[in-house]
């Protein structure tokens, strides 16, 4: 059984698999940009009290991320099999790129 078919019992077990599915530098950059836009849309919608902006969040987040998967990683997004862990992974990877814990521009 390969990791794509594995059932993960915790996020800490899943995250190394997640990073392995996001090795291409452009894919990581696209994920970072998509997650940043999601955060900015959330903050903007709250500040301006324009909650209709929230509908753009999935489009921004998934649009950038799936572009990375389909055109650069050439793999199936983990979202389809692990939606909650994958969403958590997006934010953890975003934070790690932002803080320099992992590199946005090179493979792991």
User: Structural class of the helix and strand makeup?
Assistant: mainly alpha
End-to-end separation in angstroms reads 23 Å
Largest sheet: none
- For the CA atoms, what is the radius of gyration? 14 Å
Return the string of H and E elements: HHHH
Q: How many domains, as an integer? A: 1
Topology, number of strands: 0
Uncertain regions spanning at least 5 consecutive residues: none
Overall shape: globular
| Number of helical elements | 4
Mean pLDDT: 93
Please estimate the helix content: 55-70%
How large is the share of residues in beta strands?
under 5%
Quick overview of this protein structure:
The chain has 108 residues and is mainly alpha-helical.
Structure description:
The protein is built from four helices and no strands. It has one domain (29-108). The protein is 64% helix and 0% strand.
């Amino acid at each position: 059984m390969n990791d794509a078919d594995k059932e993960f019992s915790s996020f800490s077990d899943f995250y190394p698999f997640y990073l392995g599915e996001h090795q291409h530098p452009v894919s990581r950059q696209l994920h970072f940009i998509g997650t940043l836009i999601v955060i900015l849309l959330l903050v903007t919608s709250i500040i301006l009290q324009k909650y209709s902006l929230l509908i753009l969040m999935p489009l921004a987040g998934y649009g950038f991320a799936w572009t990375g998967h389909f055109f650069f990683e050439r793999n199936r997004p983990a979202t389809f099999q692990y939606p909650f862990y994958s969403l958590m992974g997006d934010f953890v990877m975003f934070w790690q790129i932002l803080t320099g814990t992992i590199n946005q521009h090179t493979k792991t």
